[in-house]
Amino acid sequence: MTNGLSIPPLRASYMLQYRNGLIGKHFKSIQQLAIFHLDDSLCSPLERDLWKATGELGALLWYYEIENMPMYLKDLEILIGNVLDIWSLIDPQRVFVKPKLHILSHILEDVRHHGPPPLYSTEIFECFNAIFRMCSVLSNHQAPSRDIAWTCADLDRFKHEISGGWWKGQDGKFVQAGVRVRQYFNNTQVQRRLGFVSKASHVAGTMHCPAKMRKSAQTWASFRIQSSARGLSFADETRWYPCTYIISRQEDRCIIGSWVFVEHNSVTYIGRISYILTPADGQICAASVVLEEFILTNSRHPKFNMPEVLRREGTGVSHIVVKPEVAEVLFIVNVQHNCLDGQCAASGQHVRRQERQDTEITEPMWEHSDDNKFILNLHALHNAALTRRILPRYLTEPLPYLQDRISEHKDMAAKLRVIHDARRQKEADARKARQQKKKSTTAGAGAGKAAEEVQQGQPEQSASANTVEPLDHEQVVDGGAASGAVE
User: Fold this and answer.
1) Predicted local confidence at residue 192, as pLDDT
2) Model pTM greater than 0.85?
3) In 3D, which of 230, 229, 246, 387 has the Cα closest to residue 329?
């Protein structure tokens, strides 16, 4: 269930098929939901603890606003230590060879000097790569750097002009573009491309009721809401139109089935939206949001380390009726079913849809054993700071994974030294063996070359001897002839 995570539904088959080609958005989704799908049959308890620590750290890193910096840094230090400690227990050497794990230890100083990590995350600036590349592609490629600079400057100039910006003219006076030029910014497509989002469409308390749902009104009695429900109450004969979504105080789009925190009469509740109702024509009553009321436990779940969300015992379905006009719906959260304790299984079947049509292919579907036990997902990135602000401190305070970190680190270092010494000795032996092999190969090659030279040198010597002997003979003959001539 991805409602409340601000991400699209997961494509599990795609992620498994291309598991070696996942990108940031896939890892971000897995980080928020993986802990609810891991059990002892898939991974060891230590690996499960690593997923848990990674999810807790990820949620804290994606804070866009920090109210209490000392407390935030303290929590961040504990969570970073937990991730590194568990990695060290799994593989102590991994902390040294993985640069990303080493970088985690420097986040504290970055936050202390620069603020929340998302503000200077490299992922934000990677989105500009496509624009930067197209500035070069759409140029004449004669001077790419100059063309890119001019194109980016023109984009900023265009944005400044149509948005009503001012600049100093040649006469020293500030001027702006004409009315017709500024009206170009009224185009919603231009606003979207320039990153402008109109606040008018995200007013807190706004409800959306399509025209097809206004064809027939329903009575209050048809919704079967308890008369003892908290909040507002209406007569059974009042008529209502159902709506599709409502905008919360934090400008979240909350649909039917969304889990939200609401505030009614200065008391905060958590519930699941059952109905979003607006009065029919001619009815004198206020719009309402009906929720199923749940309670938060005062302790954390031992496996998930998150608060449990339970239905009230012995009361069946308990409702809360609140007013959207006063923004009593605070914000949306992500809640997952407690399948671990409920022992849920993939016993159902559903038809696969392709291109908006049902096919004859069936796929297994996960079926929940109950509708009473849930877990508040604290690994969710969306509204993470608001969730921790509204919950008691004892439900969200990070706990160290190792109680005596110094002694544990010394033991890990001792084991790692033994491993490194053995590895160094093995590398030294291998290096020595290679050197000896090289020497023997060199010596063998030298001996073979010398033998070859000896074999090649013998015919040369005999040939030279044969050559010298005739010369001596000729000298003797010539000498004799000469002596005869003298005589």
Assistant:
1) 82
2) no
3) 246
